[in-house]
Design a protein that fits this description.
With about 675 residues, the protein is of the alpha/beta class. It is about 40% helix and about 20% strand. It has a 7-stranded parallel beta sheet, with helices on both faces. Helix 10 (about 265-280) packs parallel to helix 11 (about 295-310) and helix 11 packs across helix 12 (about 320-335). It starts with 16 loop residues before the first helix and ends in a 10-residue tail after the last helix. Pfam families: DEAD, Helicase_C, RecG_dom3_C, RecG_wedge.
């Protein structure tokens, strides 16, 4: 059904048309050509009023036999009755213009298109499309497209403007004919004309599902363009030079290997070899290491840092929060300080003297490894010879932040190593991360036991209290995670502060702590440290503990209102337990469940596999949220879908590689046509 048109308030001005069009991404003719329909209206036939069916969108024609303006407490309505030789239909407009009153005046012949529904007095249409029915006027010969539109931009204007663009633009096929023949795809011109003006008989179902060959052609072009843009930006990086970090002797790396209290898994050894190989080249490394919670990414980062230091260069590790940065600092310090390596801490809330000493140590080169937060990319931080930049939880940083860390160099660009505890589905990596090298730690350290996950209704919360008592009696510790800090009137969620008081009254014999986002960094750190030291039995927390907290003695994770969390977040939180040798559990307490919420919790209960969880998360959330801040600078897909078009993506990737090798000029022209400004993706 066409959307209701709401009159603007008196005196309210519309922004200039160019601004409203720019918001829709409509600046030049090619933008209009690619402004594709959201859906279609079938106005190619008329249905007698007696044969109209409730629940269907149909078109009929008749004469207005009654029309009146009716006052209601909610405002004035316009009601009319339209009749043809077979029957009558009610028409209601809750908001209307004087022109519509004129259209529906008694005696007028009108053509109505809209959703038919059961009304008080029989069948009716609410806010149908109304046209004056001219005697002998022909019906359209193609489906009528309905386009995304902004305020004050009518479908009629858009259709005319797009039709003109289709005439004015030379829609030249850049993709070679043999490739199109092989994939059984139409020409670009035919595909675009078909999508904008589908002929009578075209499958509405295939058009809406984007499975028609015309849609496949457009999706293929878009995927090819995205692959070219990312691969080309990758090739541009080869003009930069990085230090070759391949020392003949690597005493720090060797000693770190020797003194680690555990053996690396085969996956960790493979990933470290990939990093070593990259760092030995003069082209800057751009590698993402992804691994599930607890797979051992930190030790890989430490080994890469020692290799850099053995070559005489500095390394830096940047994390998104102070808690996580400090966790890295403590753990890596335990490994590296006995080797005589100078490690410096840098964060936003340091005392002036401590900060000044750290900055001086970094600038002189005395600091061999610097660990910190966003403070590392401030103008006051000058490295003597930064050879390796490590970014943890990379999706939480924007392109500009990662770039700033790399650009803090003189003549050589540092190698970049990114870490992510969120496993990335293969299709997402192939599409959005084609400019990166990706290493996967797909093996958990020996001795890690799978976590048992249970779903329990909030009504049975008291039963969970006795489980907590049992765990603490055995010398274990417990997390209890809540989604809010304080009561919200809008959503009935238990606040962390309220849960803290509740647990203290239920479990008076236990030592219970509270940590949440409203505490300052020192207070958070103090509570977390107390829990890590075993001086608290239960830690009530918000999602500030999602990443970076390592307490091997914690064996139970309770997540309250689990239905309010995303899949990746639930998986990250669950990964806070199961870090010791004892069997661990995760209890998901749920309230009212939507269909999506039910599906999400089912996935978490059924699998501990981060990659499967990530794949399902991608289905639910889409790539934009999944990638986080990285998407500023990455060409987002408008038409293709990573799950349903996975096979097409593989064809597009293979062809893009070949095209760049064999005809790079046309390949780049194709990418620019789809993603103007793609050259700016550079070191992101």
């Amino acid at each position: 059904m066409p959307m209701a048109t709401y009159p603007r308030k008196k005196g309210e001005k519309l922004a200039p048309l160019s601004e409203r069009l720019a918001k829709l991404g409509l600046n030049k003719d090619w933008d209009y050509v690619l402004h594709l329909p959201l859906r279609y209206e079938d106005e190619t036939s008329l249905t007698p009023i007696a044969r109209l069916e409730a629940g269907r969108t149909q078109q009929c024609e008749g004469e207005v036999i009654r029309c009146e303006r009716i006052r209601r407490p909610s405002g004035e309505q316009l009601q009319a009755v339209v009749s043809d030789p077979t029957g009558s239909l009610y028409v209601r407009l809750l908001h209307f213009y004087p022109s519509q009153v004129k259209q529906l005046s008694v005696g007028q012949k009108v053509r109505l298109y809209g959703a038919v529904r059961e009304g008080y007095f029989g069948l009716e249409m609410m806010h149908p499309k109304i046209r004056t029915a001219l005697t002998g006027a022909a019906l359209p010969t193609s489906l009528t497209p309905v386009y995304p539109a902004g305020e004050g931009i009518t479908q009629t204007w858009l259709r005319k403007r797009i039709a003109r663009a289709l005439l004015d633009v030379e829609i030249k096929d850049l993709i070679p004919r043999p490739v199109l023949s092989e994939l059984k795809l139409p020409t670009l011109s035919d595909a675009l004309h078909f999508i904008h003006h589908p002929p009578v008989g075209a499958s509405l179902e295939a058009l809406q599902a984007k499975t028609d060959p015309a849609w496949i052609r457009l999706k293929f072009d878009e995927l090819v363009a995205q692959q070219i843009a990312l691969k080309y930006s990758r090739s541009l990086r080869s003009v930069y030079r990085a230090p070759q970090l391949a020392p003949e002797l690597h005493p720090s790396t060797d000693r770190l290997f020797d003194q680690l209290p555990f053996s690396l898994t085969r996956a960790q050894v493979r990933v470290f070899d990939e990093i070593k190989s990259d760092m030995a080249r003069i082209i800057p490394m751009n590698r993402l290491v992804q691994g599930d919670v607890g797979s051992g990414k930190t030790v890989i980062a430490a080994l890469a840092a020692t290799l850099c230091m053995d070559a005489g260069f500095q390394a830096a590790l940047m994390a998104p929060t102070e808690i996580l940065a400090e966790q890295h600092f403590e753990k890596i310090s335990q490994w590296l300080k006995p080797l005589g390596i100078k490690i410096v801490w840098l964060a936003g809330k340091q005392k002036a003297k401590e900060r000044s000493e750290a900055l001086s140590s970094i600038a002189s080169g005395e600091a061999q490894l610097v660990v910190g937060t966003h403070a590392l990319i401030q103008d006051s931080v000058k490295f003597a010879n930064l050879g390796l930049a490590i970014v943890d939880e990379q999706h939480r940083f924007g392109v500009a932040q990662r770039l700033a860390l790399r650009q803090n160099h003189a003549s050589l660009m540092p190698h970049l190593l990114m870490l992510s505890a969120t496993p990335i589905p293969r299709t997402l990596a192939m599409s959005y991360l084609a400019d990166l090298d990706i290493s996967v730690i797909d093996e958990l350290p020996a001795g890690r036991k799978p976590i048992t996950t249970k779903l329990i209704s909030l009504n049975r919360k008291n039963e969970v209290m006795s489980v907590i008592n049992d765990q603490v009696r055995q010398g274990r510790q417990v997390y209890w995670v809540c989604p809010l800090i304080e009561e919200s009137e809008k959503i009935d969620l238990t606040a962390a502060t309220q849960t803290f008081e509740e647990l203290r009254s239920y479990l008076p014999n236990l030592r219970i702590g509270l940590v949440h986002g409203a505490l300052n960094a020192e207070e958070k750190q103090s509570v977390m440290q107390t829990f890590k030291d075993g001086q608290l039995d239960v830690l009530v927390a918000t999602t500030v503990i999602e990443v970076g907290v390592d307490v091997p003695n914690a064996t139970l994770m309770v997540i309250e209102h689990a239905e309010r969390f995303g899949l990746a977040q639930l998986h990250q939180l669950r990964g806070r337990v199961g870090r010791g040798a004892e069997k661990s559990f995760c209890v998901l307490l749920y309230g009212e469940l939507s269909e999506t919420g039910r599906e999400r919790l089912k996935v978490i209960r059924e699998t501990n596999d981060g990659f499967e969880i990530a794949r399902r998360d991608l289905e639910i959330r889409g790539p934009g949220e999944f990638l986080g801040a990285r998407q500023s600078g990455v060409p987002l897909l408008r038409f293709a879908d990573l799950e349903t078009d996975a096979k097409l993506l593989e064809s597009a990737r293979d062809f893009a590689d070949r095209w760049l090798r064999e005809d790079s000029d046309n390949a780049k022209r194709h990418a620019k046509r789809w993603f103007s400004g793609y050259e700016e993706f550079l070191e992101a």
